[in-house]
């Protein structure tokens, strides 16, 4: 059997380190979210090991991204009379970084 083919109805299991790295959560936050049913529950593999279905974790991430809302589109929103909002802080920070290098 070819190792690159996926068996229908199966999904890759991720261990906790990979889940934490992918989601950017701490271990405590991950387990708190699981307890609150806000994060997919792990699959028990043995007495002392668990794994998460990759599809479940990716779906959770996609849902979180979709929940961002319009606040993250602030750069594309207009200020007064169609003028774009600009920040005077960003160019100053860039200039300071360029000068320090």
Automatic annotation (TrEMBL):
One Pfam family from the record: Phage_AlpA
InterPro entries xref list: AlpA, DNA-bd_dom_put_sf, Prophage_regulatory_activator
SUPFAM superfamilies: Putative DNA-binding domain (SSF46955)
Matches recorded under Gene3D superfamilies: 1.10.238.160
Positions of region (Disordered): 71-101
Domain of life of the source: Bacteria
Name under which the protein is recorded: AlpA family phage regulatory protein
Organism, as annotated: Duganella flavida
């Amino acid at each position: 059997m070819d190792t690159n083919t996926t068996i229908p109805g199966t999904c890759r299991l991720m261990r906790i380190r990979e889940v934490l790295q992918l989601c950017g959560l701490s271990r405590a936050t991950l387990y708190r979210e699981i307890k609150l049913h806000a994060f997919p529950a792990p699959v028990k593999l043995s007495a002392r090991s668990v794994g998460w279905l990759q599809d479940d974790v990716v779906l959770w991430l996609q849902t979180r991204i979709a929940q961002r809302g319009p606040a993250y589109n602030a750069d594309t929103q207009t200020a007064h009379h169609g003028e774009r909002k600009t920040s005077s802080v960003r160019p100053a920070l860039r200039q300071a970084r360029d000068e320090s290098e």
